[in-house]
Amino acid sequence: MQIASQSIEKGLVEIDGSQGEGGGQILRTALALSVITQRPLAMHSIRAKRSKPGLMRQHLACVQAAQTISDAQLSPIGAGVTALQFAPAALKAGDYRFPISGAGSAMLVLQTVLPALLMADAASTVQLSGGTHNPLAPNFHFIDRAYAPLVARMGAGLDLRLRRYGFYPAGGGEALACISPAAQGLQPFDLLARGMLQHVSVEAVCAAVPRGVAMSEFDELARLTGWDRRAMELLPVSQEEGPGNLLQATLRYDHVTELFWGLGAHGVSSEAVARKLCQDLRDYQKKPDAAVCAYLADQLLLLQALAVWQSGQPAAFSCSEATEHLHSNMAVIAQFLPLRMSIETASAPVVRIAPL
Length: 356
Prior knowledge:
By secondary structure, the chain is of the alpha+beta class. Helix 4 packs parallel to helix 7 and helix 5 runs parallel beside helix 6. It contains eight helices and 16 strands. The longest helix has 18 residues. The strands form four sheets. The chain has a four-stranded antiparallel β-sheet, with helices on one face. It has a four-stranded mixed β-sheet with strand order 2-3-5-4, covered by helices on one side. It has a four-stranded mixed β-sheet with strand order 6-7-9-8.
């Protein structure tokens, strides 16, 4: 599959939010690129393919955060709204605070403003509150351990600190992101192999949850993987930061770090949490030629596209699966940036990005 941008003008970009996977990622990518390119955005059918279409709490927070960092003019929005108009003025570095009441994903708010603030003319700090470990969203540790090193490899900086866990449905988490733009602009790179496995760590969190839950998760994961049960660690946490249960495995390779996780939930056994994590891990390991997993590929695509656009140099990376999220993201990027993007079918999909 190949996508090439058509003639890129500086005018209005119209986005159909129902295209592809039809979820919130389309909104977040479009907002980030609108701020970066200073092109006004008109979007309709927002999250049209979700069971509750339109803007939810965390999506409203993403829109408001993008507005704040760019002094954008914005059409009236609220819960359930399925269309918006967004006209940025100027991207501003600064010290920001973006709260979400409840357990809306603070990491998805960061995902919206981070690409833009990486292109600003000075460093920024972003204080986030809400959910730090949510289902169906990258968690804090994934952004810190898997994504931030790739930002550093491009010459920029992303320093993250977790001040308080925020689990669904209570929320109340807090995190700080210190963002440093690249002095010479973002530099693209090829990431076509993960390299040899160097280290594995397994951790669990039990906040206002019996520690026996983590012990059962460790037992099951050790049984399934053969990893040393004695090396698995229960992380310290205040019991006021729950209720919540997290199980995660961090795999450090020569060229990339991957993190797989599972969240405990009412009615879901500890063994089931461990088995789901193990299945995600095995899906990645079945594709030894893939540098990054499907989730990290979604995160990396926009960053690489911006680096290629800024530097004029091509980039490529391999991934375990070319998901519908990835295809949708490519389609949105092509409406903003003059790039040629393709996905090659091989032993593992290879994403290639080049300037037009």
